[in-house]
Amino acid sequence: MWFEYDVGWLSTSDDLLTGLSLVMPAHNESENLRWLLPHLSEVLPRLAKRFNVIIVDDGSTDDTGPLAESLGRQLRIDLRVIRHERKSGYGAAVGDGLRAADLEYTAFTDADGQLEVADLALLVPLLKNADLVGGWRLSRQDPAFRSVISGVFNRLVLLTLRIEVKDVNCALKLIRTESLDHFELHSKSALINAELYWKVQKDGGRFAQVGIPHHPRRMGRRSGGRLIPILRAAKELIEIRFRGSVK
Fold first, then answer.
1. I want to staple 79 with a disulfide (CB 3.0 to 4.6 A). Which of 32, 72, 158, 194 is the partner?
2. What is this structure's pTM?
3. How much of the chain, in percent, has pLDDT values that exceed 90?
């Protein structure tokens, strides 16, 4: 396990969340899951009294799903896998995971290890005054072109959906699960992040953000930042803003 992270500071008191469903979309992330799932088994008990993990295997070809199920049994954690036979898109994977969440609070993050699950503890205090809490990356550990694309996309989202966020695509978010019952999510692309903020706002809810560290990817291959997914997200942005949903 490459992630050396001190989880000793996390709360072990009655301040724990009552229940937490953690959703993780994954496409060919078997290398990362080998260290990540044991890490989760240490971190999650310090965040919630009850927890489960939902891995959405989005058309992987490297046994991501079967490996996750095997590790879940070995670690004795409540883990289930939702399998997409074909790659359906990041938003489709996140959306299916969120719809399967069944505990009081739902979090999601990526399975690439660039965001530390223990940092959900930084989001928890903001739930006192918000329905949705997201992170914003203090210093991005990505190639320069991805940071540029992200900056342009954030600005486009701000202008189109009129949501005040510093980092709309940061994949560390925590929401009251009951809030997810108030609206439907339609995005199949990474626009799912913006749609989530927008739908919470339209429903009369509140959201907040907090700065969190961002780490380099050490294993596997990144799939974001490609032209076709970017164009798909831009198309969905217009559709959601002016039609309320995507085709």
1. 72
2. 0.86
3. 66
